[in-house]
Amino acid sequence: MKFDIQPTAETAGSRRASKLGAFPPAWRSTFLQYFHLGSRLPSNDAIQNNMLKFADTDFEGQSGFVDQEHREQWGRQRRAMEEGLVPSDLQKRLRTVRERAFKFARRAFENGLREARLYERGIENAVMLQRTDFDMMLDGLPKALDGYRIAHITDCHFDTNPGLLARLKGLVYRESVDLCVFTGDYQDNRKCPQASADAAAALVELIATFEQRDGALAVLGNHDRTDIVEPLEAQGIRVLANEWVTVPKGRDQLVVTGLDDVHYFETPMAYRALAAAPEGFRIVLVHSPDAAHAASLHQHDLYLCGHTHGGQICLPGGRPIITNQRGHPRFSRGRWGCGRMAGYTNRGAGTSLMPVRFNAPPEVAFITLRRFKKRLD
Ligand SMILES: [Fe+2]
């Protein structure tokens, strides 16, 4: 699929943040907190009504691999891999040395930021959640999907980002989209079952604050536990674990394939799901960009992911220092192409390891699919 990309529209959030640049940081954060959290929060009744609505949401079309046997096989494999992340005694000793070295380096870096009086600014940057609105021009997009609007939210790490849920709710409140997609890392501490339950509750509360006509879909990230699947699905957020769903659109159909994380939990099941997706306009949801080449080879049209946090700490101009992904550095943030497939790597809403961001503001993306019309002259 040939595609074209229009320049990023300057969003209200980014304009607001840049216009505030001349003010002292304390004034900026007070203003932004007021703007995001003040009068825009929904009432409890509105949230409750929406929760009831989403509990009934179901996809009208077919779904692939979503049967008890597939789920049980995937669940067994995933849990075994999660337990496999618990190291043996020897590994623990080796890991202790590595972890100490890492902690030392992290503290040295944090102290360096404090000495340079940048640490507080990094924390302020990390809470300045922005919205990114843009049109994704796609050749071959069915007419019925022209203007289809997707909200893309990822990498919330709710347990280490207090206040993020309120900021997210303020930002998406009363938005109306066709589909909401979550691409993983809802919690930070993968050893904590309570963090899974809290993150699931936060996501359910979040989707109740805005409208998604075709519902909400989610995939798991490398920090997530299998425990989160049940509470999400009980409240109408469909989790795709190497599965696909279809949404009929006139004579055509939208096919959304969701993979389990391929960064830590890669299995052949993920690639089988990519290969088995039916014909239609095909979107892939994956936590990280690591499966981009495979998705492109299997003729998927659009790839949405997160995981990299856009680098989280970047050099001026947005060049990441660490990308934490296996692909080309260009996959680490924003829009990119891989063969005939278009892709978007979301910078994520939260932080991990350190509560700071530089030159990589947190975001929620609103993506509008547009047909690319060829010029005849
Ligand atoms: Fe991740």
Account of the protein in words:
- It contains eleven helices and 18 strands.
- The protein has helices at about 10-20, 25-35, 45-55, 70-85, 90-115, 120-125, 165-170, 195-205, 230-235, 270-275, 290-295; strands spanning about 5, 65, 130-140, 150-155, 175, 180, 210, 215-220, 235-240, 245-250, 250-260, 280-285, 300-305, 315, 320, 335-340, 340-345, 365-370.
- The chain is of the alpha/beta class.
- It has one domain (about 5-10, about 25-35, about 45-85, about 120-370): 4-Layer Sandwich (Purple Acid Phosphatase, chain A, domain 2), CATH 3.60.21.10.
- About 35% of the residues lie in helices and about 20% in strands.
- The strands form four sheets. Strands 1-3-18-4-6-8-9 form a seven-stranded mixed β-sheet. A seven-stranded mixed β-sheet has the order 2-10-11-12-13-17-16. It has a two-stranded parallel ribbon with strand order 5-7.
- Helix 2 packs across helix 7 and helix 7 (about 165-170) packs parallel to helix 8 (about 195-205).
- Strand 10 and strand 11 form a beta hairpin.
- Bound molecules: fe (ii) ion.
